[in-house]
Amino acid sequence: MRGQGAAYDARRTAILDAVFALVDTEGVAQVTIRRVADRAGVSVGRVQHYFKTKDELLEAASSAINDRGAERVAEHAAGTPGDTLRAILRVLIPRDEEDRRLFRVQQAFETYALTTPALGARVTQGYTELSALFALLLGGPDRTADGQELLATAVGLATLTLTDVITPAEAEVIVLRRVDQLLA
Question: HTH tetR-type domain location, by residue (predicted)?
């Protein structure tokens, strides 16, 4: 059946990876279907087979980067709620060059979302769900403000590691100290 299978998924992923590379090095505004095709080594028609418009391409890329983050978070969910919370927060801190690249791309999409209502709604929903998960892991819905605080702290610390203000190890100490305080 057309459009199905591993080859289809591999080509689609390669196109999205080309978007990530362009966003990382040049920003969202520089993404065009032609530039993505060139970067992916495919024709413009091939890109348009998967994504009809630039907006559709950018929305798919933003969703894909969020999905990758969600997969990483899900991989670390185990043990007690506190253990799971600590593991998730560790994942949110960029540690290696690939983590840093993905965080830069995510931040670029979030900035782009400020002027793109549909994408902005997805960003808001993602952060709302993550802070709600943090609140749940802290003890329930009455911990919403604490969940929001942890989310803001983790995102802020991730940005500070990206700009080399602090190391990932220092960021981890800060966020885990706050988790321990909230769980005490």
Answer: 9-69
